[in-house]
Design goal:
This protein is mostly helical. The protein contains 6 helices and no strands. The chain has one domain. The mean pLDDT is 94.
């Protein structure tokens, strides 16, 4: 079953690219903040927006960036709320993998 959610597909592809290309340093905080705020604006019709999964993934893959976001953007209600999420990385990774398969980002091997 393939999902037709082009905005979500683009966002997850962008996140994957950011996780690979941006270092886990202070310089990467602003691009991730912009990604998070734009990601939260996505409207989906067939699937729930995987906010907790995405944040768990960022927290695991970019712990410095996540920590800076959590500590320095406490007054930004949106960033504050999503950085309070505590979700197990393994579960988040599995759910994102399955979602990427359904969106056609990944191919089952």
């Amino acid at each position: 079953m393939e999902l037709n959610e082009p905005e979500l597909k683009d966002a997850l592809e962008k996140m994957g690219n950011m996780l690979v290309t941006l270092p886990d340093k202070r310089d990467s905080v602003l691009p991730f903040k912009h990604f998070i705020t734009s990601f939260l604006g996505i409207t989906t019709t067939n699937v729930s927006l995987p906010v907790t999964e995405v944040m768990a993934f960022i927290k695991n893959k970019k712990p410095t960036v996540f920590s800076i976001l959590k500590n320095e953007y406490q007054r930004n209600l949106i960033v504050y709320a999503v950085t309070q999420v505590d979700f197990e990385y393994k579960i988040a990774s599995k759910r994102l993998y399955e979602l990427k398969l359904k969106l056609g980002i990944l191919q089952r091997q």
